[in-house]
């Protein structure tokens, strides 16, 4: 039988799905409910496969499969985007939301079919449920999508299949099935969008910062795949290999990524970036302030490692110490959200590219900094970093940035949505920066009553909810663009459900919680 935390996590996700579709009920609601029910049953099959070691790839073992919460994120994001853009009368992005929802459902269904297919003996009831859910989804897609949209959905599915086979083989124990669905599904969609836009470039159409995100994400992923294959045949830790790494990074960056970006934005990317970063005095002040915070974060890393050297080689950073970085990230994002969201958007993309590049340097032991990074970052490892990659800091950045990147600017004529939607860009700050941090700190220091089947405490969750409500009040005071229009009950319900999900989920909460809070706010 499923254990209590998994049941509680599934119940919370189901409540979120019902809350969304209580506001917006249409043909896609039937698909979402059917997908939720079948994902709940298939999740049990995945969990049993992981326990028995029968999964095709090696997944992260310290967590359950997480199939249900991950399966609903992309479909729900597409559905709420569709509704917001339909309300604004933007037909193009309404159709785009339908494509996102259909793609998310089909990818989740594909992962479910794999689990059912490799389970022995074949689970008859789960097969029937999966068949019913698949029939409902395909029938709805048939009557909702044009031929070109169906092809686009199938393209993303094909990319997802190939990426899954390659990355899950090369990176064992880095993901659960649910995390793989979210991360690889997102990368597949970004890659498909970049290919589509590159083949249909129209001068003056599209925001350069959107192209900057697409090219940066695809560029660093392709860079990693290239060096992973290359270093199968040569030792990556030598000076010759390191010199080749830096040389090829420059060649790929200047010879492939820069021309690609130039084709999309129709101007020199470096000149555009410099002009963008230093366009106003406010941006200069923000960049100086962020540089100071980055130096502070580095100072925390060096101080904790010096402390480890003086005390014990086995010293590991405590939970509270790791949350210092959450406070620093909150201090980074809040001024950007208030004063210049476009600058924050671009700065977050640059930060993501830098984080992933430094992880390549650490993973491949590239001289002169590879071994040093391995030593410095090993202090901050936890049970979620069981694979060859250290991803928690990248997930933290993604959790804070995704609500900013995914904010439907084209469907918000005044730069902000109405009601609770005005808080969408703050979803990462509230869910991870405030809620998760406060829950962890107060739960580990003062919590006594534990939620059944978990290490999380009731006191931590209640304090997190209270802290997020205070944070919303402060946002109302300092950000004049936020107007909640008496949506306070919905905000309280959203924050409470996501905080309960944090208490019960074993997935990467830095990635999952902001997305669910964004869905509820939208």
TrEMBL record:
It is an enzyme of class 2 (transferase). One of its GO terms (molecular function) is dolichol kinase activity. It comes from the Eukaryota. Belongs to the polyprenol kinase family. The keyword Nucleotidyltransferase does not apply. This is dolichol kinase. It is a multi-pass membrane protein. One of its GO terms (biological process) is dolichyl monophosphate biosynthetic process. Keywords: Endoplasmic reticulum, Kinase, Membrane, Transferase, Transmembrane, Transmembrane helix. GO terms for cellular component: endoplasmic reticulum membrane. Its main location: endoplasmic reticulum. The lineage of its organism: Eukaryota, Metazoa, Chordata, Craniata, Vertebrata. The chain crosses the membrane at residues 12-41, 61-80, 92-116, 122-141, 153-171, 211-233, 240-262, 282-303, 324-339, 345-365, 386-406, 426-446, 458-478, 490-517. It is found in: Endoplasmic reticulum membrane. Its EC number is 2.7.1.108.
């Amino acid at each position: 039988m499923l254990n209590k935390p998994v049941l509680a996590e599934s119940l919370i996700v189901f409540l979120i799905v019902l809350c969304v579709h209580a506001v917006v009920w249409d043909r896609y609601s039937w698909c979402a409910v059917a997908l939720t029910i079948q994902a709940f049953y298939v999740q049990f099959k995945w969990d049993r496969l992981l326990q028995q070691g029968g999964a095709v790839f090696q997944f992260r073992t310290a967590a359950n499969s997480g199939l249900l919460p991950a399966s609903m994120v992309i479909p729900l994001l597409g559905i709420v985007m569709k509704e917001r853009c339909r309300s604004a009368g933007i037909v193009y992005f309404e159709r785009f939301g339908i494509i996102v929802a259909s793609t998310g459902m089909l990818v989740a269904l594909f992962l479910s079919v794999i689990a059912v297919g490799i389970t022995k003996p074949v689970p008859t009831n789960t097969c029937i449920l999966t068949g019913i859910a698949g029939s409902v989804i395909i029938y709805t897609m048939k009557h909702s999508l044009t031929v070109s949209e169906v092809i686009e959905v199938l393209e993303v599915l094909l990319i997802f299949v190939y990426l899954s086979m390659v990355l899950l083989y090369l990176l064992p124990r880095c993901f659960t099935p649910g995390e793989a669905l979210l991360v690889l599904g997102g990368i597949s969609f970004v890659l498909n969008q970049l290919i589509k836009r590159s083949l249909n470039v129209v001068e003056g159409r599209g925001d350069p910062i959107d192209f900057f995100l697409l090219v940066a994400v695809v560029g660093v992923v392709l860079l990693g795949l290239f060096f992973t294959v290359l270093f199968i045949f040569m030792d990556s830790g030598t000076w010759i290999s390191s010199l080749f790494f830096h040389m090829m990074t420059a060649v790929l960056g200047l010879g492939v990524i820069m021309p690609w970006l130039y084709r999309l934005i129709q101007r020199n990317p470096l000149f555009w970036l410099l002009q963008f970063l230093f366009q106003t005095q406010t941006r200069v002040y923000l960049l100086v302030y962020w540089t100071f915070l980055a130096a502070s974060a580095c100072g925390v890393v060096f101080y904790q490692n010096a402390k480890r050297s003086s005390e014990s080689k086995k010293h590991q950073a405590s939970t509270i110490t790791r949350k210092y970085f959450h406070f620093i990230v909150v201090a980074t994002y809040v001024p950007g959200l208030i004063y210049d969201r476009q600058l924050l958007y671009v700065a977050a993309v640059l930060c993501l590219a830098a984080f992933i590049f430094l992880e390549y340097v650490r993973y491949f032991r590239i001289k002169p900094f590879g071994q040093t990074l391995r030593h410095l970052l090993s202090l901050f490892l936890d049970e979620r970093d069981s694979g060859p990659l250290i991803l928690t800091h990248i997930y933290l950045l993604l959790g804070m940035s995704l609500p900013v990147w995914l904010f439907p600017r084209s469907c918000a004529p005044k730069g902000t949505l109405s009601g609770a939607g005005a808080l969408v860009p703050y979803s990462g700050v509230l869910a991870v920066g405030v809620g998760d941090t406060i829950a962890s700190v107060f739960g580990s220091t003062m919590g006594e009553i534990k939620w059944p089947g978990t290490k999380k405490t009731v006191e931590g969750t209640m304090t997190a909810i209270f802290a997020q409500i205070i944070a919303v009040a402060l946002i109302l005071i300092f950000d004049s663009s936020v107007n909640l229009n008496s949506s306070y009950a919905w905000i309280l319900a959203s924050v409470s459900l996501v905080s309960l999900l944090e208490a019960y989920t074993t997935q990467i909460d830095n990635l999952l919680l902001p997305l669910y809070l964004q869905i509820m706010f939208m």
